[in-house]
């Protein structure tokens, strides 16, 4: 994917996270590409305000798995079901900064999220990566002309009240379950006091 974008004279900036292994084989390939192409930029990790300032400089955020662009690629450790339902905190960060999203409809949750909140969504298909520049130029123009979307529900302030209600229900359900278990244990204990010692121990497993 990186090679396809760079070959089309599109600048690609990649940031590692602080915990990532810099000696990983994929990282080594990135370094090689950075040495070969002036369109690939291997950036240092950034955090805090510097992270948001960095995102402001870019037009699109990339969220595509190689296996959906190059069928011969094998993503070890990731099942199809895992990828279909996977989320991405980075995707929400891109959207918050009003960046366009290059993604795949096969990553269903991310596709739904991007279509709902991003200013523009580009299908990162094999055909797109074969000649990405015309599509991105059109998408950039559409992004600039797109009416603003309401992103308040996915901000910290917007999410907090809903999470608060959710966890209140979880806590309440947990307390009800605890009372039910305690009651069951008390009943079993009382029954055990008047039960012959020959009763199988499995009858007391809930205690």
Structural write-up:
By secondary structure, the protein is mainly alpha-helical. Helices cover 52% and strands 9% of the residues. The protein has nine helices and five strands, in the order H-E-H-E-H-E-H-H-E-H-E-H-H-H. The strands form two sheets. It has a three-stranded parallel β-sheet, with helices on both faces. It has a two-stranded parallel ribbon with strand order 1-2. The C terminus is likely disordered.
Task: Set out the fold topology.
Layout: H1 2-7, E1 12-15, H2 25-36, E2 40-43, H3 48-55, E3 60-63, H4 80-85, H5 89-96, E4 100-103, H6 108-117, E5 121-123, H7 126-130, H8 132-145, H9 156-193
Parallel strand pairs: 1-2, 3-4, 4-5
Radius of gyration based on Cα positions: 26 Å
Shape: globular
What is the count of β-strands? 5
Major pleated sheet: 3 strands, parallel
- The total of helices stands at 9
Helix percent reads: 40-55%
Oligomer: single chain
- What is the chain-wise order of helices and strands? HEHEHEHHEHEHHH
- Average of pLDDT: 80
Structural class: mainly alpha
Short key terms for the protein model shown above:
about 210 residues, mainly alpha, three-stranded parallel sheet, two-stranded parallel ribbon, 9 helices, about 50% helix, about 10% strand, globular, disordered C terminus
Short description:
This protein has 207 residues and is mainly α.
